[in-house]
Each structure stands twice: as structure tokens, then as C-alpha cells.
């Protein structure tokens, strides 16, 4: 990102505590601004205020009364967004980033290079904290994908991507990452397992294949400090 006080077309927005559905509405508005050419790019950093299970929009994961009530009994809200392939838990202790940007006009879109661009930034973020990560899928993890970031084989980051059309031609990329900082891995898989059961998906989810960042570092940076480190990694 261009780091300049006069760079009005680049936006950095941070929400240390925000309800997930409110965030997704704000994110949709920012995407529309990039699509319209009002903004060149946005880095959106956030953490959910309340435990919320986020479903991918679509018929595969219907928001039913049964699911909503079962999650509510466990202390979880339910919402949906248009990215990701499977349910993702959000709660304090997991931080997120959305990078919304215009894909270069003179370069054909390539999903692998777009994902690796994000993974390289995240790898730098972890390196700043003295942690080494590898990029690969993680069998048994929720919303598994080949561009997960892992510490010693355990998933610490999940990533997702969406490609949208820009007005007047061109493409806009929504690139996302979900980073487990200090959430209890047993707690975060519970709503996913419940959702899989109610929606009759037989994917096996295991808490043990996930790991929080704070299990691997002695210091415990605040959310604001982590947001600053993520921003620095993007500006590098």
C-alpha cells in the first residue's frame, strides 16, 4: 500500500471490536467504492465483538431456525458473507484482514499469484514475531484450503478470495485472512461441528489441528499492536 497522508484513494480502517454483520455491511460498501474507482485499495482490520459463526452465502449452508437456535443456546450468533467455502467462527481472540484492491489492468488475473501475494505478507507478519509458517492445507481444520498458514503443521491462518468486476472494466480482488491469536481451539470448533451436523455435512473437524499464535511467542501484543504489525507488513 502507498503510505502517504495525501493518499486519499488508499484507506486503512481498523475495528478492534465490531459485530460481524455490521463489519460485512461496511466491507460491502468499501468494495463498491473500489469497484467504482473512488478508492484504489482498502486494508480493513477487525475483530468480532461477539462469538459469531459465519456461513458462506448460498444454498449449501442455509440459515435455518434449527441452526440459529442451536447456536444461540451455545452462545453463538449466526450470519453469512459472500466469501469462503465453509463455516468460519469469529470471536475475540481471532483477528481478520480484508485487502480490497484493483488487479493490475495489464496482468491476467491468476488465483495462485493473488493468494501467494497475501501469504507472503502474512509470512512477513509472523517473521516479525519470530514465528516460521508454512503454506498448505490442514486436514481436519475448519474451512480448509491450500493457502492456510501453519505453524509446525497446525493451522493458524485461513485465507479466502473473491474476484469482482470493476465498473468500466478490470477486476477488484477481495483477499481475506482469519488469524487465530489466543482463542481456545476447542471452543472455536464447537459451532462448526454443530453446524456440519445440522446441515448434514460429514466433514470431520478436529480442534487439535489448529493453534493460536500466542502459544508460540512469549510476548502478547495487544490487538492494536497486531494491527500495526499487519499494516507494516503490507507497507513493506
Distance between the termini: 8 Å
Rg value? 17 Å
Mean pLDDT: 94
How many separate domains make up the residues?
A: 1
- Element string (H = helix, E = strand): EHEEHEEEHEEEEHH
Main sheet makeup = 7 strands, mixed
Count up the helices: 5
Unreliable runs: 1-6
- The share of residues in helices is 25-40%
Query: What is CATH's topology name?
Result: BirA Bifunctional Protein, domain 2
Shape: globular
CATH superfamily membership, which one? Bira Bifunctional Protein, Domain 2
- Structural class of the secondary structure composition? alpha+beta
Largest sheet strand order? 1-2-6-10-9-8-7
Q: Report the sheet-strand fraction.
A: 25-35%
Number of strands: 10
CATH C-level category: Alpha Beta
Which architecture name does CATH use?
A: 2-Layer Sandwich
Explain this structure:
The structure is a single chain. The chain has 236 residues and is of the alpha+beta class. The chain has a single domain, classed as BirA Bifunctional Protein, domain 2 (2-Layer Sandwich). 30% of the residues lie in helices and 28% in strands. The chain is built from five helices and ten strands, in the order E-H-E-E-H-E-E-E-H-E-E-E-E-H-H. It has helices spanning 20-35, 65-73, 111-128, 185-198, 223-235; strands spanning 10-18, 41-48, 52-56, 77-81, 88-90, 94-102, 134-135, 149-151, 154-165, 171-180. Strand 9 (154-165) and strand 10 (171-180) form a beta hairpin. The longest helix is centred in the middle third of the chain and has 18 residues, at 111-128. The protein is globular and about 45 Å long.
